[in-house]
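Protocol step 6 of 9: fold each sequence in the batch and record its structure tokens directly after the sequence line. For illustration, a two-sequence batch is reproduced in full.

Sequence one:
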Amino acid sequence: MFRGRMKLDIIFSVLGRLILLLGAMMFMPLGVALYYGESPYPFSLSIIFTISAGVLLSLRYLPSDDEWELREGFVIVAFGWLFIVLFGSLPFLYEGVSSLNAFFESMSGFTTTGATVLVDIESHSKSLLFWRSMTQWFGGMGIIMLFIAILPKLGIAGRQMFRAEAPGPRKISSSPV
């Protein structure tokens, strides 16, 4: 099924750009923190760390004209989720949430689960609550982007996926679709 070498330059380049995008999104809650007179440090530090990691990956592994194969897509999606959740948990960490709870909040947001482990939610800064809401919104948008941007690049048609996932009775035919 998988032949040849995995194209690491494609994988790291895409992951770097994904991390850069996440760092750019952190400017919005930073603006909220400045507007409400809250400490800008949780988001300033998160932005610096996230954008630095994204730049390092993006510059080290420049995008190539090679085509993605299925295995690169799988690796990008798997590590993309992991990196987004890890870097997305930084604002929670810098605001004093424990590492496990920060990871849980970030994972819950980006997967649009909506669960929380924060006991007294209103005690947190407005900017962190805004970030928590943004992770849920971007998580929902991420699923849409998966269908629009990534899957066609892998040669997977949306209609075929819809047929595979749609419930209900199906007509079984002997002719190929």
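Sequence two, same batch, same settings:
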Amino acid sequence: MYQTLRPLLFSLEAEAAHGVTLYALGVAQRSNLMRFVAHPPPAELPVRAFGIDFPNPVGLAAGLDKNGEHLDALGALGFGFIEIGTVTPRPQPGNPKPRLFRLPQHEALINRMGFNNAGVDALVRNVQQSHWRGVLGINIGRNKDTPNERAAEDYLTCLEHVYPLASYVTVNVSSPNTPGLRELQQGDSLQRLIAALMEAREKLAAQHGARKPILLKIAPDLDEAQMDAIAATLSGSGIDGLICTNTTIDHAGVAGELHADQQGGLSGRPLFERSTATLQGMARRVGDAIPLIGVGGVASGSDAADKLSAGATLVQIYSGLIYRGPWLLTECVEEIRRQHPHPGVSA
């Protein structure tokens, strides 16, 4: 059905189509019509990572459901896990529209959304009202007008609010669309932020009787020295996992195409090689000590399997869904089952 509807959706402005798709998905789920929309993976392919049992290793990346408003409908598609957000302490509108652009010839997107979201209190209410009970990641960030010197306060506020509801929490320091955010990936800034989050996590674990994993999401635009520094910072830090990667600011792979000169992060097929190289680089550096999630450019089942071959324990998809529809999820699970029949247990 999605391939039939895609031309209609692509006739709409990209962000408008995003909203229409999520609304229609919700209608289908509430009307028991999901069988016409998607065919979930037919059987589980269990994976254990970060102390969590995942029914299959393919999840939804953050950004598609920023406010956690569509968990029931998205959960019905059969994801092994869903990550919502990025959420900030206070609501913010994000960057001016238009801010999302399709590059269909490359199965790519460029976005400069800017952490548009309704704030952490709204996300918490939405999650509490949902009925889906799968593995839930919540991605947290800082408000645009919060200086980096006070960024830890924003992350700590979000962590405290989402902690009781999240299966794991992702710390986003790698979006290219919030000025200065990527500076938090560097040196002492990253070390101080992680230390503050680890200290808060121990208090929250005692308060709630559960120690929730905390993951870090990094950019693909890192050189060898920067990856060395991140790996050194993470060693012994207590961080539970690493997500490789966010979108890239390098648009060379789509140069000359319509919208290629738009400012923002590039995702989709052109990101695959760069994000996988970063995944491999971090896998070499952290070994088995820190499980990795591979994300970026997964547009086929073989792409997903390649992420596992590169060192990932789990995979996330997003832009590929825009071009392939929900069938991509099943294809990814089935190809991983074929190439990695026993994905097994990670730390």
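Proceed to step 7 once all outputs are recorded. Observation for sequence two: The CA atoms of residues 41 and 174 lie 31 Å apart.
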